[in-house]
Amino acid sequence: MTEKSGVLNEKDAMKTEELISGVQEAQVLKMLRALANPARFRIVSMLAERKEYTSSQLAELLPLAQSSLFDHLAALREAGIVQVSSDGSNPNRYYCLDPAALDFLAAYVSELGQQARSWKELVKVTQKERTMEIRDATHEDVATIAHIYNQGIEDRSATLETQLRTAEERAEWLAVRGSRHPVLVAIDQSGTVVGWASLNSFNPRPAYDHVVDFSVYVAREQRGQGIGDALLGALEERARLLGYHKMVLAAFPSNAPGMRLYERHEFRVVGIYQEQGMLDNKWVDVVLMEKLLH
Length: 294
Ligand SMILES: CC(C)(COP(=O)(O)OP(=O)(O)OC[C@H]1O[C@@H](n2cnc3c(N)ncnc32)[C@H](O)[C@@H]1OP(=O)(O)O)[C@@H](O)C(=O)NCCC(=O)NCCS
Prior knowledge:
Blueprint: H1 2-35, H2 38-49, E1 53-54, H3 55-61, H4 66-78, E2 82-86, E3 93-97, H5 99-116, H6 119-129, E4 133-136, H7 142-155, H8 167-175, E5 183-187, E6 193-201, E7 211-218, H9 227-241, E8 246-251, H10 256-264, E9 268-279, E10 282-292
Parallel strand pairs: 7-8
Antiparallel strand pairs: 1-3, 2-3, 4-5, 5-6, 6-7, 8-10, 9-10
Helix pairs in contact: 1-4, 7-8
The chain binds coenzyme A (COA).
Residues 33, 36-37, 152, 155, 157-158, 216-218, 223-229, 251, 255-258, 260-261, 264 line the site of coenzyme A.
């Protein structure tokens, strides 16, 4: 009886250990994603240098629009990196780092480093990272490309396009693209296309030959896992290889994942066309962004 409960306890202990390690991994991923953004990293560096700042002080020093700063602070708070404190005598809210959270992250990463010192573990880590492939699209991909594009069109958050596409239409679209306007696809472990991205002609006049427009679309159920980020990284690399000087895009300012993605890749806002399009009887603003590649 004692032995039996001893075995059970051991199992329970293992389960608890697994649970804890799962929770820890989720927390670390959350923190790393929050930190992997230039503006947020700067906020954390500033808070590390000086104990606390108000949001207006941070907005002025960075410099960042208050609304964008609040989004970043919310993401950092959500990840447990930043805390907010209120001084009784001062109506301003002060933001500061949670040193315990950063110690936890450092300890976790250091532990990974120790594990990776063993060659066997190093191979395991590398294999885990190799979960997604990005390659040029082929005729076989057109049906999935159309499906993913149609999801983006139906969402009404990505494009002013309203006409849904078919595999046949996308096959023609793919066939007439020259080598300067490639289409890339992201493939998951099971070989399924989970997203696509393309370099598109910005303007046919020769003077614009060094400027390229682009599109990125990730399957609805696969969004928010870094696929858009990987596709845009690969697209930018290709644009550089093709000798483009600049990448440009037009998007909806209300497209939060898109805005985050472009900000992470250091695109600059050129300006906003107010009430530029009409979708489902509602005006839509369009933001123009650019990134110089050289
Ligand atoms: C926009 C899109 C391409 C981004 O790709 P994704 O794989 O979902 O995004 P990622 O996981 O690579 O994350 C990119 C950034 O968006 C953020 N993000 C992802 N989902 C989000 C959401 N639902 N709300 C707010 N931010 C979000 C991520 O946190 C990350 O920002 P960070 O670097 O500051 O942490 C994808 O959501 C999509 O295909 N949307 C529909 C089509 C579209 O809008 N295309 C762009 C047209 S301009």
